[in-house]
Amino acid sequence: MKLILLGAPGAGKGTQAEIISEKYSIPTISTGNIIRAALKEGTEMGLKAKEYTERGELVPDEVVIGIIKERLSLDDCKGGFILDGFPRTIPQAEALDSMNIGIDAALSIEVADSEIVKRMSGRRVCPACGASFHTEYKKPEKDGICDVCGEALIIRKDDEPQTVLNRLSVYHDQTEPLKSYYKAQGKLLTVEGQDKVSDTTALTLAALSEI
Ligand code: AMP
User: Which domains does the chain have, with CATH numbers?
Assistant: First the structure.
């Protein structure tokens, strides 16, 4: 399965991606995680991306398109993949189409802005392995500690309130038009994000079974 996950930042794409990835044994490719890793390592791409991510803006298309081309050419993508956080603009979607890899579906997880703001204020991430938790909806077994690798969890700089509002407005302006783009291709699936992760997962898996 070659799947795109769409939705506002904080809509739960990352969590659903982890679940689908395990169920279908395909990798999740998150441009956000790739960019954060590059930032941490201080690579040239990371330095280029830093100012944009910290302001909650999108990194220029040519940078992320380059990242995705390289990543999708690796062997583990041959049997399918989930794209989490890419494409985020029409030019990115067009670049993906021009790679001719045959995307099966774009699944949009719909969540109201007010709910997103509430969710993001409780989001905690692991700076070491990228796993994501929530103080209310997805508690780690031990408070403040990553279940996967034991590192102390942090609040991402771009989850701070003003940045979240900025990211939401960027989402509505630049990413939401992708819903019409994929609808026109007959590939759009829509799921209403629920309060409980397991309820959203049930809807997601039901939607995917239709592909
Ligand atoms: P995410 O974790 O997916 O919310 O991504 C974090 C940040 O990385 C975003 O706010 C953007 O600055 C940048 N980023 C991730 N994916 C993309 C993309 N497809 N296009 C442009 N910028 C991106």
Answer: 2-26+79-208 (3.40.50.300)
